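Reminder: ligand-aware prediction takes two inputs, not one.
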Amino acid sequence: MIMREALREFINGLVPEIREMRQRLHRIPELAGKEHETRRLLKSEADKLQPIYWQPKLGTDLVFEIPGRDPGKVIGLRADMDALPILEKTGVGYASGKEGLMHACGHDGHMSILMGTAKVAKAFEKHLPATVRFIFQPGEEVLCMGAELVEKGVCDGLSSVYGFHNWPGLPVGKISSKPGIFFAAANEFKITFRGTATHGATPEKGNNPLLPAADAVIRLQGSPPLFPGRECGNIGMFSGAEKKLECHPLLKLYWKVPFAIPVWRRERPMPFRMRCARQTENSAVSIPLSIISEIICR
Ligand SMILES: [Zn+2]
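Here is what comes back for the chain with zinc ion:
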């Protein structure tokens, strides 16, 4: 009980420092894989704890351990580091200092909370039952760097690993969890429609991919939904000709598809890709043009 009180007191005393750290991180948003300044700031904080560092595996990741009493047991705690290509218009005093970049997903908060947890672990290290591995992971927004870090061994030897993400709809002070699947794994697709360029005055001489592509958007996002149950998808970009009169040979759709499945079940996106391919092929045959569609899983 005394221990719990001491912990509570220490954490309460730490809150202003963590808040200030979050604001410093918020000022320096960096995109996936480029979190160099972010890493430097985190490292300068971690140095104060004299932890055991891991060599970076992806350049900007920061991984360190604070040893506990049982050297055979290691628990992992993870936070993401990257920001988004979004212009900040909040007007807050600690707003992004980088034009067009913003910590709009809250990873600045995640990093501060994880560093705060490391400070708590260090302060109470004599009481730590297990070693704690702190994992600052770059590139959450590009969907693949977490898996790369795991493949490079960052989870080796862990008895368990915990991560979290803020959820703005929850009341302050509440956390939410449940057994089984909770947050989603995600994937990204690019579909390219290839036609033949022609002058706008002679459409019969070309193959305009715009119509089948527009049809595919409706098929993929319309009703009935392509993503029943726990899957959902969003077409985020539709790009083609840049000149009004030209029938451009290429038209691309980009979309991000979160799957509510555990990331380790990597075979699961395949049925989605097959369904997606079928829908785009259906779009292509509905127009008497020679269209090739490609679906690329990154
Ligand atoms: Zn996020």
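Residues 80, 105, 107, 140, 165 surround zinc ion (CB under 6 Å). Residues 2-27 form the longest helix (26 residues). We will return to this case in the review session.
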